[in-house]
Amino acid sequence: MDMSLSRVFWHSQLEGHNNECSLSLPVDRQRSSTNQQRSGLASTAEIIFDNELCTSFLDYASSHHLTLFQLGLSIFYVFLFKLCHGETDLCIGSINANRYRNELQNLIGMFVSTLPYRLEIDSHWSFDELIQHVRERCLSILEHSHYPLQHILGDNRLNQSDVSFLETMFDFINVSKDVEHLSLSDANLEQMSLEQSGEVSKFDFSLTFVYNPLSDNKRLSCSFVCSHDLFEKSTISKAAQRFQYIFEQLFQTQSSKLPVMNVSLSITKVCLILPDEAEEVELVVFHRLKNIVKKGMVVYSLIFCFIKVVVS
User: Under CATH, domain 43-178+199-270 is a member of which superfamily?
Assistant: First the structure.
């Protein structure tokens, strides 16, 4: 197989990107420069979207000719753009099925590979515009998904242990409708759930969506699994709340109490500040909360945080 076109493609994808610079995520502590070993301990948070939001998400994907992976990835890019204070050159890793030819679709075996997904965001883009760029990027990556990660790193003279896009990961799992009807040599196979005693963090920051059309009350969910070496559980829980709030703004339902978000407006209009945080700022500034000793310092701190999040 001629790999020359894929070699050129992947070189162009990473050209000009600082592959050793990590995203500006809200870490609680830095990993020691002298000890890069991971503990494997995880800080986790799970979000279960209600059926109305799930239906809105599916309808949006269908009407815009998107796969669920592409739409989920687009939301994650918007979230990282806001969370990292307007950082526009976002490069993360994702698992690719790597079954790029029809004859590979039904073969038994492990074909998956990890690939970089880079998107240079224009802050003036609307969400509708961003998803089209993500769709085009995903389709172009699919054409060259057979090119091994080791070759991508080697061609760009990168060391796997120093590459930042392998620290932040995204995945979308679709549970097949046929999973309940599997058989082998006249024996029916039944799906069993494995209860895990605890999550293991393989990456610094990862998000995984799961869509299960067979479930009645958990059709669409997502989980953050992040390194406890960097993040406290409370930090990831708050990040998950912010992600859910962004999701709700983009896919509002009739029963939603949120103000209408126009997806044709700039993605900078998507709000990262939770409603209770905005209310607290308002109370402090205009009504003064009780039991605050140093009111001036609290007002300054809250307004500073408020402006910082809004600007980003």
Answer: Nonribosomal peptide synthetase, condensation domain (3.30.559.30)
